[in-house]
Amino acid sequence: MSAIRQMLISTIAIAVIGPVALRGAEIAEYVGGTVKSIPVNATGSLSLGDAKELRFNYGQSVYKLPYGQITGTEIIQGEGRRVLHVPVPRFFGKSRETLAINYKDAAGASGTVNFELSARQASAARDTIAERKAPQTASANQTAQSNEWWGDKYWKTTRNKATWEATAAPPIAPGTPAANGTK
Questions:
Q1: How many CB atoms lie within 10 A of CB 30?
Q2: What CATH number is given to the structural domain containing 135?
Q3: Number of domains forming the structure of the chain
Q4: What tens digit of pLDDT does each residue of 31-80 get?
Q5: Residue 56 within any structural domain of the chain
Q6: What pTM did the predictor assign?
Q7: Exposure string (b/e) for 50-72, b if CB count within 10 Å is 16 or more?
Q8: Is 10 among the domain residues?
Q9: Which parts of the chain sit beneath pLDDT 70?
């Protein structure tokens, strides 16, 4: 009788502790894209801790994608469960969403990677990617804007001398008629 009781208690403990332990681990699943080195339906973890690149750790391998190559992200809502081809709402468990990441590789070819994540993790990943990309584009915009001033198009100064010389009309030679026909 005690063997049955131990097995029953062990089964209940595993049934209760298992989902609680898995809830803390964030699992990402590669569900498709243009990357052939990652097998479809490979599960692992999506790491956004590095300041320069996104990492997908699966099995013994790591896929790295620099933030500078990412051109856009999109969250696609999951379909949910179906029973006999009828959609059924999820009462238990987390809803899953697909995070689609578009990028251009070093050669300039467009590609995409799609990861299925929990809804919370997908939105956090999208926000983190946007933050990591923002400093790169902001610094380029600040450099371009730091040399511009609204008065440059109205006043000739030493800082915009090259612009005024490039747009100046050619000098009129003596003896040529003026543009409006008067002398």
A1: 21
A2: 2.30.29.30
A3: 1
A4: 989 999 999 999 999 999 888 999 999 999 999 999 999 999 999 886 65
A5: yes
A6: 0.57
A7: eeebbebebeeeebebebebbee
A8: no
A9: 1, 8, 13-25, 78-94, 135-147, 166-183
